[in-house]
Design brief:
With about 290 residues, this protein is α+β, with helices and mostly antiparallel strands. The chain has 7 helices and 16 strands. It binds succinic acid.
Amino acid sequence: MAYRHIEVRRIAGALGAEVHGVDLARPLSAEVTDEIRRAWLDHLVLFFRDQPLDLPAYMAFAQQFGEPVEYPFVRGLEGYPKIIEIKKLEHERVNFGGIWHADTTYQDKPPMATTLLAREVPPYGGDTLFANQYLAYETLSPGLQRLLDGLHAVYSSAKADTTKTREDRMQDSARDDVREEYLAEHPAVRVHPETGRKALYVNVAHTVRFRDMTEEESRPLLEYLYAHQIRPELTCRFSWRVGSIAFWDNRCAQHNPVNDYHGFRRVMHRITLAGDRPSGISAAAR
Ligand code: SIN
């Protein structure tokens, strides 16, 4: 269906589109919000250029699409507990969230969506990659799809490769109420509550094993899936400018910021929107 109020330009075959013709600093009409949501469900991640919103306007933009929630590890900004700063400083070597993942899938109700607004960008590098997890599922063989349809996975916040990407921020911005570990179980393939499509839901950052299996037993299949789900043809790549916004569907897309800009600062503001409990069964069959 065509758009009447916005212009949508795909940036890759698998997912991702730039949206033009909107000023996100102003309240959006219901028609524009509906078209953005439709484009978001179709393309999984939307990008907006030249939107240097102040904090109240950024929060108001996010609230038009869902309910902002706090991040369990890092404190939010002064006066804006639901906006966190994602940054890598000149002297730091590790970037926050620098591993393929969907956000906080170790929670019982992981966020539906995440939005990131670029405040400071390096002169080169610091792009973010995204991968389409509908396609990751659909490009598996029918036999493997059937096997995965019946499996649940266990997700943890404490995998070593992931905790190290948070270490710098845990030193200067940790929340007072931070827990040692968050653990959750979800279907390995979730049915998207709005589109009804199936998406592969395991991710290398947070998935530990399949339910009722050991880590050793789970590892060969998980490793196959981790490699499969980020094949280049399932991805897109976004180059940031100050004022760029990305808005992604955390239920069917993964992301990975590229750490190729040592010696330079990169500062982003992130808001996540509340999600539901992932289900492996379509709403109609529940
Ligand atoms: C994240 O939210 O995982 C960080 C993404 C980025 O810095 O591009």
